[in-house]
Design goal:
Layout: H1 14-20, H2 32-35, H3 55-78
Length: about 80
């Protein structure tokens, strides 16, 4: 016995459509945490050391904080305001 397939919806939800059409210039800031850690000049050296850790290790933590703060900032600037 074959089970009939449910009808597929003809339109996507409005939230997916609004996200797909978000062309905010703030989104360009999301390239910062991707490109900045790729610059080799930041890692070319041992000094300065912070708490005995070479530059490479504490820069890794800095890149994580840069990514989180940039993503949070872009989200806050691009989210839709609720109308009451």
């Amino acid at each position: 016995m074959a089970v009939p397939e449910p009808d597929a919806p003809t339109t996507a939800p409005t939230t997916a459509q609004s996200r797909a059409k978000d062309h905010s210039p703030w989104n360009w800031l999301l390239f910062v945490p991707i490109v900045v850690p790729l610059i080799p000049a930041f890692f070319n050296g041992d000094a300065p050391r912070i708490f005995g850790f070479p530059r490479y290790y504490w820069l890794q933590l800095t890149w994580i904080l840069l990514g989180v703060s940039t993503t949070t900032f872009v989200y806050q600037m691009t989210k839709k305001r609720r109308v009451r």
